[in-house]
Specification:
globular; 7 strands; alpha/beta; binds iron/sulfur cluster; Lambda Exonuclease, Chain A; 214 residues
């Protein structure tokens, strides 16, 4: 993948990179199979069952909800899936991303980046502006709106460009590790951390098991 001039990047992997550069690197290099061991990942998969099949549902007020929607953007070299896209009768399009939970202080930045990338793809596909997306909390059934502001779009495109440059460099050392307590919830926790930090973290994070996903 590193040799390709413009590899197609799955939206979800770019969001993982926004959470932790090394996690993004691990996905790009095929280490994602480790996620089968991660209980947070398994919970998340279970919560996504209702949207991991292509369907169209008809809701009140003429809203159509499409699930498991394919995404692409030929100029940005993006591919991927949206959990759900709502098509409103007046023409509004709303990408909806399912997450296990949403912090009280608001959606994680990398989840906002994921929505923003989805919106960029959908804007290209539908030739329409998409000013807002939604994070849906699987545990609380809450819809949390995420304004797709010029700042978020700029941050997202900068991240994408940074990631592409790092992939082109072919240097894995350019991918920094997050190394904080949220690592405990990461798919790659057991394979990526330096042993000292791993032991240290394991001692201090025994009460961290029920925290939100990354
Ligand atoms: S364990 Fe932490 S540093 Fe390692 S990939 Fe996950 S988030 Fe990044």
């Amino acid at each position: 993948m590193f040799e390709e001039e413009n590899p197609l990047l799955p939206v979800s992997w770019v969001a993982d990179y926004a959470f932790c550069q090394w996690a993004g690197y691990a996905f790009f290099t095929g280490l994602e199979n480790f996620e089968q061991k991660n209980t947070v990942y398994q919970d998340s998969i279970a919560g996504h069952l209702s949207v991991h099949e292509q369907q169209s549902r008809y809701r009140e007020k003429g809203i159509v909800q499409k699930t498991d929607v394919s995404l692409s953007h030929d100029m940005l070299y993006l591919t991927g899936k949206a959990d759900m896209v709502e098509l409103w009768p007046e023409g509004k399009i709303v990408p909806i991303e399912y997450k296990r939970s949403v912090p009280a202080e608001g959606p994680h930045f990398h989840h906002q980046v994921q929505l923003c990338l989805q919106a960029l793809c959908l804007e290209k596909q539908y030739q329409k502006d998409i000013p807002e997306g939604v994070i849906y909390s699987i545990t609380s059934h809450q819809r949390v709106p995420v304004p797709l502001t010029p700042l978020l779009r700029e941050q997202t495109l900068n991240l994408l460009s940074e990631l592409k440059n790092k992939l082109k460099s072919g240097n894995p050392n350019m991918f920094q590790k997050r190394n904080d307590l949220l690592c405990r919830q990461c798919t790659f926790f057991e394979i990526c951390l330096p042993p000292v930090f791993f032991d240290e973290l394991r001692k201090t994070s025994s009460d961290f098991a029920d925290q939100e996903e990354f």
